[in-house]
């Protein structure tokens, strides 16, 4: 592309084969699959290729879908269950408070992600192939980010926070996703040696614990220092111990808390300015952190992998009373600590803290997880009523955004050999999904009746009756092309399609005329009301019954049925000969079974349809009818 | 202890699930057969406890035997051998090692393309076993009786049905009952040389498929059939033709039924609508002995839901004392523990 | 990430003019200047030649699969002025041959299956033919629209059975009039409507400045909106949209470097593939603001360099 800047999202796939040098075109398959073939527009016989066989190739393209790897299929299936449960919650109680339920389901999603991460870790440890292991590791990175962002969004938008004071939750989030310092703290405390400062990680760990708000742990670690009894250590320990911690349940108002906290921090500041800690630079650093000194945070930033690692600490030592919606400034301050940065995760965390969920979702879409994350998170946030996205014309496009994500994700799954019912359940939950589901569901390759029955059952479940009918019709056509009249009729009847039933019935009648046995007698004799779907089918069914009666020597009934078939005039032209000639043996029975009136009727039909019969056959029938008329003239047949 | 349900996702839709019996101990091993995927297989699994937590048992895959098509049925011919039907028309007899379940399944016999439309493939839709004999059925409408010891076809009823057959059950050694896509049930005397059923009747008037058939373990003249509609029909073969009861049961097709091996008054059923139920059969079988009791509502029966309703079909179940295994279309297997029978 | 799933060596002795996948995407039909039509079975990873259909005596321009509820039917049209409908009954054989055109038949298209088995054909003789299968007599009725486009008709496409007639409920309007769109050498696009037993010109869309090479009516997604894509030798691709199938608004999708030969919609109508003389296939999609963006392209090149970036395609 020349204009690479304008369309930077265009991905180019280079065709390897020479045959595409002069011409190329595309043929679509189901979903987003397609083939590329060398299409020639002009019948140019003078090209160099025309003298012998061409090397023309057709390439079938396929998108490799991360989610379709076996480990991630578990995630797909399990999340589908949660998605559908969430849908049920929103449907059953539209206006009441469902926050508790939403929180439960959000946590369920997170535990699904956790299981997925553990599975990926386990598989990564077992995997011997380096490329495959690298792939697994890259999936892991993706899912770590997903877990981290989901958790943060849950805290900021879904969780029920007493008094809306977010700090304890924020600290929990930091501790959960950055457990590195906590792990080394545990090691240090376990070995419990005086003089632990010799451990190169000692101070980083202490500072890390302070920054994560683990004051008790930090104090315990300080006790392992060989100089713990000095005044400096006692001073810092005292400050840490006396730090006021806000709790909704303590009965103190936020105002009172703010006053006592500010007082405590002022004390810390005065201790710092009194230069009491000048000889213990590490303790001084801790004290500076406690006073919310930006330069102190700047100095430790390099030891952390990301700026939001220190976010909890920053909020804790600057605005511990911050509410959920008041984290923008803290995010800006912490992000400002970073030198470069700006990966997806950085942008997402910052956007989430600043309340820009649209940006969060936009960034999520750039992650290579095939829409799993964006779809489910958007859905949860929307159902909680926490997502309000306006487009540039200030119209609310929230549900449109959610619907389009669900639509794309569902379509993707619907293409999969096994996951199609999962995909269908997503498409069925958005307004525009039905038609798309219809188009895709109809085209699912069906190899067995078992599959056909399931596709039909799924289609009916969502009211896609057109699909159910189309699938049954196709099964009928397929059976017919195999010559299986019974199966063709059974599926035609399922489709309630007069056209399919007629096709199958005509085939059966023609096969019989050509000398074959009458097929599908077991079906026709038990079909009942199904026969009414089509006239030709009705004829076939009744004709089959005629055979049954004749075989069981119930001649009178057989004769009556035959006459009704002939006089009803529903037989196709090619079947008249058979029908008329079937009267012959009934005219020759010892006891007459056809009445005088029947004979008249048959004579009339014979004369109207004489062209169907060969001359000698017609003569024979005329004679038999005349004889029957003669013998029934005096003693007519008594029908029971 | 209350009924406990544990699900494990296995990345395959499970069509059949079977406990592998053990001589003296409670078994931990089971078979699964998958369907509707690019590659399908019969797998052997074992439940393993997670290190400290004795209550949580996770299935671990021990071996995999790939087949070319959907696994449509698995039945035992003896304690270590199964007969499996496949949607490419094959029937296979496979043996699992008694000593080491990790060793791959051994192929005892294979009937390749036993069911077929000439060159086109045709699904072998189900089979049943009795004392080493196998009765297989297919979309071709044929019934084949296979000798599991010799590995040959001892009897074939060609064109037993003009439609596809979907369920089959041995009533006694020389008698099988088949059900087709329209719910047309036929009883076949295997010894007879005519291709005519000994008896035939309809499951219901709705022309929907008979998806599974079982007979009562202690009263073999009582036959139950599950319908694609979710209805359950009961026949007393001593008075043919009309079901003694037709129960509107599940919301969608019944996929499998099993009488509890230890208590014949308990029937367990699974369905396309994602339900697993247990039924107290006392009333039903008693009534069958009295007189014809038509069209009954399931509320009159003693029916319990054993598991939260799944969003996808439950295709199969198998019970062993207080433990029930289920396999489902959400690519998961479920273990129900502490079932009271 | 897009990758090549498999490669099919066609074995055609001359250039290929069209390739179409069947309803399920399991079979591929191709046609070529070597007068033949070939059918391949393509299952994942393997492909086999299922049939080699010989019956035309000139280059075969286009093939089209019918809906499988009518059985396995394939229509082909050729420079030899013939349209052949092939049917598979165990083996592939000729079901019907239509010889009513006086010049090369350029394109064929089956009507939506809801209407029955109906085929539209268009020819360099400037006319369109509509062939309708009559079940009772196993015959084909022919309706011809002469002088549809001066010099010749290049392309034809049907309006989906479910479409944007405001006056009708979009999900049940099976009685909506049948419509089709054609593109021709008179630089025009015309929309035709069946009225009684006549096909009448309902609308002409005048925008292109050279021969219209291809037109494609987008699959309906149940929205109250119809879309038609057209491409021309004037190097432009135009998207026409309408709320009522009567008044149409054009949007120029893009002006390319070379003649654009073909446009085709993906199954669900959300992606348009454009291919032309610049030896590229580009895939386009409409964003929420109604802008058309190129999301992917497939181009000729030397040596294998696949792009590692995960595409959103």
Considering the chains and any ligands shown, give keywords for the structure.
heterotrimer, A: 640 residues, mainly alpha, 30 helices, 60% helix, C: 313 residues, mainly beta, Methylamine Dehydrogenase, Chain H, four-stranded antiparallel β-sheet, disordered C terminus
What is shown here, in short?
The complex is a heterotrimer of chains A (640), B (341) and C (313). Chain A has helices at residues 70-92, 99-126, 130-158, 167-177, 180-191, 202-211, 215-222, 231-241, 254-273, 281-290, 294-301, 311-318, 328-335, 344-353, 357-365, 372-383, 398-414, 420-427, 433-442, 449-461, 465-481, 485-494, 498-513, 521-524, 535-551, 555-567, 576-581, 583-587, 596-608, 615-634; strands at 11-15, 25-28, 34-37, 57-63.
Descriptive report:
The complex is a heterotrimer of chains A (640), B (341) and C (313). The N and C termini of chain A lie far apart (88 Å). Among the domains of chain A are: 1-22 and 33-61, no CATH class; 179-303, no CATH class; 446-533; 553-640. Chain A has helices at residues 70-92, 99-126, 130-158, 167-177, 180-191, 202-211, 215-222, 231-241, 254-273, 281-290, 294-301, 311-318, 328-335, 344-353, 357-365, 372-383, 398-414, 420-427, 433-442, 449-461, 465-481, 485-494, 498-513, 521-524, 535-551, 555-567, 576-581, 583-587, 596-608, 615-634, and strands at residues 11-15, 25-28, 34-37, 57-63. In chain A, 60% of the residues lie in helices and 3% in strands. Chain A is built from 30 helices and 4 strands. Chain A is mainly alpha-helical and 640 residues long. In chain A, 44% of the residues are buried. With 341 residues, chain B is mainly β. A 5-stranded mixed β-sheet of chain B has the order 20-21-22-23-27, covered by helices on one side. A 4-stranded antiparallel β-sheet of chain B has the order 1-31-30-29, with no helix packed on it. The two termini of chain B are 13 Å apart. Mean pLDDT of chain B is 89; it is low at 288-298. The model of chain C is unreliable at 164-173 and 302-313 (pLDDT under 50). Chain C is an all-beta fold. Helices cover 0% and strands 56% of the residues of chain C. In chain C, the strands form 6 sheets. Chain C has a 4-stranded antiparallel β-sheet with strand order 2-3-4-5, with no helix packed on it. In chain C, strands 6-7-8-9 form a 4-stranded antiparallel β-sheet, with no helix packed on it. In chain C, a hairpin with a 6-residue loop joins strand 20 (236-242) and strand 21 (249-255). Chains in contact: A-B, A-C. Strand 4 (57-63) of chain A pairs antiparallel with strand 1 (2-9) of chain C.
